[in-house]
Design brief:
Number of strands of chain A: 7
Strand content of chain B: under 5%
Distance between the termini of chain B: 21 Å
Structural class of chain A: alpha+beta
Low-confidence stretches of chain A: 8-24
Radius of gyration of chain B: 17 Å
CATH superfamily of the largest domain in chain B: Cytochrome c-like domain
Strand content of chain A: 5-15%
CATH architecture of the largest domain in chain A: Orthogonal Bundle
Number of strands of chain B: 0
Largest sheet of chain A: 3 strands, antiparallel
Largest sheet of chain B: none
Mean pLDDT of chain A: 92
Strand order of the largest sheet of chain A: 2-1-3
Order of helices and strands of chain A: EEHEHHHEEHHHHEEHHHH
Order of helices and strands of chain B: HHHHHHHHHHHH
CATH architecture of the largest domain in chain B: Orthogonal Bundle
CATH topology of the largest domain in chain A: Cytochrome Bc1 Complex, Chain D, domain 2
CATH superfamily of the largest domain in chain A: Cytochrome c-like domain
CATH class of the largest domain in chain A: Mainly Alpha
Helix content of chain B: 40-55%
Structural class of chain B: mainly alpha
Number of domains of chain A: 2
Oligomer: heterodimer
CATH class of the largest domain in chain B: Mainly Alpha
CATH topology of the largest domain in chain B: Cytochrome Bc1 Complex, Chain D, domain 2
Shape of chain B: globular
Number of helices of chain B: 12
Largest interface: A-B, 29 and 25 residues
Helix content of chain A: 25-40%
Low-confidence stretches of chain B: 1-20
Amino acid sequence: MIRTLVYTALSGTVLFSATAAANSYKTGAEIQQYIDTLTEMGFPAPEEDQLVHIPPTMEDLEEADIHPKLKQTIRRGYDLFTNTQQLRGENVFNNMNCSSCHLGEGRMPFSAPIWPAAVTLPDFRGKNGHVNSLEERIAGCFAYSMNGEPPAYGSDDMLALSAYHQWLASGVEMYPKQDIYGRGFPAPDRPEQLSYSNGEKLYQQKCAVCHSEDGSGLRVDNQTVYPALWGDMSNNWGAGMVRIFTAAGFIKNNMPLGQPNSLSDQEAWDIAYYMDNQERPQDPRYTGDVEETAEMFNNFHQHSMYGKDSAGDGGLLGDHENTGDKPFLKPFNVGVPRNFEGNTD
Amino acid sequence: MRKLSITLAALGLATQAGLAQAAPEGDPEKGKQAATMCTACHQADGSGKHVEGGESWPRLAGLNAEYIAKQLHDFKSGKRQNASMMPFANMLSDQQIADVSAYYAQMDATPGQGGENASEAVLKRGEQIAERGDWSEYVVSCKSCHGPDSRGAGATFPGIAGQHAGYIKAQLKAWQEGSRSNDPQNLMGAVAKRMSNEDIHAVAVWLANQSPVAE
């Protein structure tokens, strides 16, 4: 059930050297099949010495030799991750589920699989300038991607979500030294020119059938089928997806649904650029002045259209007080520093 | 009884079938008359029939009117091919297509057939494919396009819960073989091509056992 391997390529042949994982019985052939499926779908094969991990599935959980209470907790975490809308109005104020961006229940390579966070945190994060725990990382996606208010640290829901992340990382060593295969939403090379009008045309051809012409997506019976790409029901201006390279990486690797890597790099970037030129709820770090906020968080917003003039007809992007359905600007976790400088080494 | 205004944009026909004019509004009363030539296969109550080992007839009752109309236009134009069905589509005018579509759409959906004897293990696999997919094979869950409980999402993504197992299987195989390719952007084809025969069977029987409407 635990399949963690360091993948080594040697003069065209592929060698596997299994890292010591006590309960590992995934064979090299099974890992090869997993990688073959990915390469068939147009993803790159692992590079030399990359860490390849196939996270366990919910079927594996049934069989797992762990306490039944822990199984229940992990199942609850899975349920929250794939149906985060059950927290709507409390922790979530848009149409997203965690799995709206982390495809395949948070397990898919190239769709920001979530297990790496469980083995690489606590660590320093540039985004908020301090050392973050796994709970803080999850809280980050609530504050920005879900345009919400995270469940309290240590709460049942937070525990369940962390347990699900950690379970997916089963068998991987803490703080692995190798680069992780398929982590994040790797962006294709940025083309020289980005075209708003080409992005718009492609969006209408390839994406609107699901996400609708105005980007608002589709809900049926109060459930999200197609999440909103912009507008009030989408992620806010502080979410990672507003960086054009992140969106380009997401789109290239995952969209249209079921047809990853079907767009050219230029197409993925143009659509991402078009998407990022539309309005969405205010960044929770907003100071009251969009240009000031963009400047203050320039390491992030240099990659987004926030605080810049829309290439379409949107005017100055992010210049508003609109927080979408969320009746406040700043959730409890935003702008809270940590500092250990008082402690001497 | 509701009348339906089927717009070009919603049908997605403007580019797909190259239609130049807006589709007419459907009248279910008139549709009922036109449907008399359909009952031999699709049955008077629109339930269709699962035919084990033969060609199944899809349930039409309760399907989305725009979806039904699109299929009839596709049969007529040859974009979708089927020897049993095409002669009947060819008999229908654009107005009659709108009318029969409105007629079948307002009928009460009937239960799916053909999943009665499936084993528990097969049904469990079918449920997994429909509800969660199998991402290690890059098979996307059916419900991520066909909506909650796979009961349909808008005019483009038809309800498949409570459809007959034989029909579901035949369609998935047709997409695999390339003999059905009238879906927008190859959305359905890309999924079907990744499925094994076992998974096609499993998902078909599981879906046939599900209720087509919320209970």
